[in-house]
Amino acid sequence: MRVEELDTPAAIVELDKLEVNISRFQRYLDEHGIANRPHIKTHKIPEIAHMQLRAGAVGITCQKIGEAEVMAQAGIRDIFLPYNIIGERKLERLMGLAHRVNLSVTADSEFTLRGLAAAAHREGLELETLVEFDSGLGRCGVQTPQEAANLARLIARSPGLRFGGLMTYPSNQNTDPFVIATRALLAGDGLAIGRVSGGSTPGMWQAHTHPEINEHRAGMYVYGDRYTVKNGAMKLEECSLKVITTVVSRPTAERGILDGGSKTFSSDLLGLEGYGLILEYPDAVIYGQSEEHGHVDFSQCARKPDIGERVTVVPNHCCVVSNLFNQVAGVRDGKVEVIWPVAARGALQ
User: Fold this and answer.
1) Could you tell me if 336 and 234 lie in one domain?
2) Phi and psi dihedrals of 165, rounded to 5?
3) How far, rounded to the nearest angstrom, does the alpha carbon of residue 218 sit from its chain's CA centroid?
4) 101 within 8 A of 95, measured Cβ to Cβ
5) DSSP labels for 96-124?
6) pLDDT digits (tens, 9 = 90+) for 79-94
7) 275-316 residue pLDDT tens
8) Helices 175-186 and 145-156 sit at what angle, rounded to 10 degrees?
């Protein structure tokens, strides 16, 4: 099948670019002695995760238990779940995973740790647990090195748990001082900080500037999008994920309507103008969306599309777009080589 035969809106991945993106970032981390643990929440596709592992990743990162279950079912055996797992049902599922794969988790409170410890102890497991700290994002994570050291000590004395290190997002100027201070507080306890897991795609090429970090989690580098281009992490020509849409209406001389709206591109703007970049008409602006319609201003374009014309859109945020499609077509030289189900799509629990 050729790309032109795909029904629209269609999510496609240019395989040549995907492969280069995976190998280039893996090579960079290898050169600096940093373990690569890619975040699969971007693509949610086991086949791409296996590509990352074959390239040299030490394991993968999942955001939710449902994602991890899908990846474990696909044969992936080293999974990091940096999310506070709370509630008996979730803990039961987590223990089921821990029996099947090499699983590590995070926590930022005594409440979360006690739940993890009780569940793991009942199952006769030893669960590697990292302490999450807040490097400035204002999301999850302990606020001070003293809090991190206190939780590390609690992990160390809790049957069922093993202290694995520290985790944060994103890696920034606050990361190394926090790790150094926490290490000093733990020196007298004989507790080593084995892993320091940092992350982000925007800062992925600066991972080596954080000497305390020995593991990096990035997700969007496989696909790229307008946001990663804006922040300088990738170039437009390196973006592998595109959405093909059809112009279904030209109500006025300057306005066009695409067959993809918020259920195709999401409503993420991320500080950008418009909801995606139309490669064939780079001066056009997708200024608005209905659920199934993309509203485009073509007034600045010298040539304007006809009804029925197909256009290619680089989305603002690849992660959410991936989660909106049941499948992604892998293409090379204009031909569809593979159709991948987005197997972990909607795995929010």
Assistant:
1) yes
2) 140, -150
3) 6
4) no
5) HHHHHSEEEEEESSHHHHHHHHHHHHHTT
6) 999 999 999 999 999 9
7) 999 999 999 999 999 999 999 999 999 999 999 999 999 999
8) 50
Tokens of 329: 């077509």
Sheet holding 35-36, edge to edge: 35-36, 215-217, 195-199, 161-168, 127-133, 102-107, 78-81, 60-61
Structure-block tokens of residue 14: 């240019």
Does residue 165 share a domain with residue 89?
Answer: yes
Separation between Cα atoms, residue 89 and residue 141, nearest integer Å: 23
Q: What are phi and psi of 277, to 5 degrees?
A: -110, 120
Q: Treating both helix axes as pointing N-terminal to C-terminal, what angle do 15-31 and 46-55 enclose, rounded to 10 degrees?
A: 40
Range of the domain at 283: 3-9+227-341
Beta strands 102-107 and 78-81 are: parallel
Query: For residues 141 and 84, is the Cβ–Cβ distance under 8 A?
Result: no
Would the pTM count as exceeding 0.90? yes
**Among 95, 154, 142, CA closest to 120:** 95
Distance between alpha carbon 93 and the CA centroid of its chain, in Å?
Answer: 22
Sign of CA dihedral 113, 119, 122, 123: negative
Residue type, 302: A
Find out whether 42 and 13 touch, Cβ atoms under 8 Å.
Answer: no
Instruction: Read off the tokens for 99.
Output: 């029996």
Q: How is 31-79 classified by DSSP, letter by letter?
A: HTT-EE--BTTTT--HHHHHHHHHHT-S-EE-SSHHHHHHHHHTT--EE
Residue 190 and residue 44 share a domain? yes
User: Are residues 203 and 256 located together in one domain of the fold?
Assistant: no
Query: Token pair 């020509």 is at which residue?
Result: 237
Instruction: Kindly tell me the burial class for residue 252, based on how many C-beta atoms sit within 10 Å of its own C-beta (0-12, 13-18, 19 or more).
Output: exposed
Indicate the residue type of 56.
Answer: G
